[in-house]
Specification:
- The chain is built from three helices and five strands; from the N terminus they run αβββββαα.
- The protein is mostly helical.
- The chain has a domain of 64 residues.
- The strands form two sheets. A three-stranded mixed beta sheet has the order 3-2-5. Strands 1-4 form a two-stranded antiparallel sheet.
- It is elongated, with a radius of gyration of 27 Å.
Length: 190
């Protein structure tokens, strides 16, 4: 049975920090076997590669590659990394004719190492999420303070005592909301 044309790799599995995984520079990028491509294979591959590369040329976060090894960690059906007899992760490879990877830098590579690339992408996504959460926190804090100020000003036009109570209640609500947002941000950053 033929292998599917498009292969969806699972997300990066849990990696033990004690493992020393091979880097792109340490992994093979050629196997000393000649390619036996005829015009019947080479022409469509060229169309696919150059067509995709042209289509995504303006995107710095899309890599279009061809004829290179893709190294990945072998995992079981539960997504756990499989280890060899020496307790080291098993790194497999395949060599698709053409492949496209999103959310990675478009740079020259000798081979594509999924666990290295996905770790960088995950760190970038987490940093962006932290920046987004911090900005959301600041915006909500500013809205709560503005609302407290508005209520304070409104209260100044009415009964002074009632106004003070409303402002204190709004300030208390704002303080509680700020504390809640800070706690969420701290939980998220852990």
């Amino acid at each position: 049975m033929a292998e599917p044309a498009i292969r969806d790799f699972p997300r990066l599995p849990r990696i033990d920090p004690a493992w020393r995984l091979p880097t792109e520079a340490e992994l093979p990028y050629e196997d000393d076997e000649l390619l036996a491509e005829t015009d019947y294979q080479l022409e469509p591959l060229g169309y696919a590669f150059y067509g995709l590369r042209g289509h995504y040329a303006q995107r710095a976060d899309v890599a279009v590659q061809a004829g290179m090894f893709v190294h990945y960690l072998r995992v079981d059906e539960h997504g756990e990394v499989l280890l060899d007899a020496h307790g080291k992760p098993i790194v497999d490879r395949l060599a698709p004719d053409v492949f496209v990877v999103f959310d990675v830098s478009n740079r020259k590579r000798n081979s594509y190492v999924t666990y290295d690339e996905e770790a960088v992408a995950r760190q970038q996504a987490e940093a962006q999420l932290q920046r987004t959460e911090a900005a959301r926190h600041e915006a909500e804090s500013a809205r709560a303070k503005a609302e407290a100020s508005r209520l304070e000003a409104e209260a100044g036009r009415s009964n002074e005592r009632r106004a003070r109570m409303a402002a204190e209640a709004a300030a208390q609500q704002a303080a509680e909301r700020i504390a809640e947002l800070e706690a969420r941000l701290q939980r998220h950053n852990r």
